[in-house]
Amino acid sequence: MTVLREHGDDVLACLLPMLRAAGPGPSAPLEELARDCERRLTAITRRPARADDDWSVPWSGGCGCELCGTLGEFLADRGGRPLEWQLAEARRKHVKDQIRSAELPVKHEVWKFGSPHTLVLNKTGELFRREAKARNDAAASLEWLAARRRR
């Protein structure tokens, strides 16, 4: 279920519990949903594995401001280099709020010397763990769907 939410498929997050509740021999609409779910899960499992040096973080969020634009560029960069960003307090807060609300795998800290202070962003290994978990969850969900169909 987590894999579906992480990939923006909130509606599909409801699919598996509905199928489980439907009992043996799901109705045609539920079977159609199951096929759609199976296609999406299969697509996740067939994606090429992330390269060890690919630190890009998918993100479609942001408010469109210049700060979110810079954050988006940092996230899209395949490199694992940190971003040292001198920002006033309100601007730092905005960036940190974006990171928190999107649950991005990015650690942030503030270096409190100079003016304005420096916000330091580092992508974390959670990026790789989440992707591996998404693949494992998708594979497990596919197995469950296959077993369900055999009933």
Q: Could you list some keywords that capture this structure?
A:
151 residues; 2 domains; 6 helices; 3 strands; elongated
Overview of the structural elements:
The structure is a single chain. It is built from 6 helices and 3 strands, in the order ααααβαββα. The chain is mainly alpha-helical and 151 residues long. It folds into 2 domains: 2-51 and 128-150, no CATH class; 66-126, Ribosomal Protein S8, Chain: A, domain 1 (2-Layer Sandwich), CATH 3.30.1370. It has a 3-stranded antiparallel β-sheet with strand order 1-3-2, covered by helices on one side. Strand 2 and strand 3 form a beta hairpin. The model is unreliable at 1-11 (pLDDT under 50).
Structure described in brief:
The protein is mainly alpha-helical.
Please write out the topology:
Elements: H1 2-6, H2 15-22, H3 28-46, H4 66-76, E1 83-86, H5 89-101, E2 106-111, E3 118-123, H6 126-150
Antiparallel strand pairs: 1-3, 2-3
The biggest beta sheet reads: 3 strands, antiparallel
Question: How many domains make up the coordinates?
Answer: 2
Unreliable spans are 1-11
Distance N terminus to C terminus?
A: 22 Å
Strand content is 5-15%
- Which structural class fits the helix and strand makeup? mainly alpha
Tally the beta strands.
3
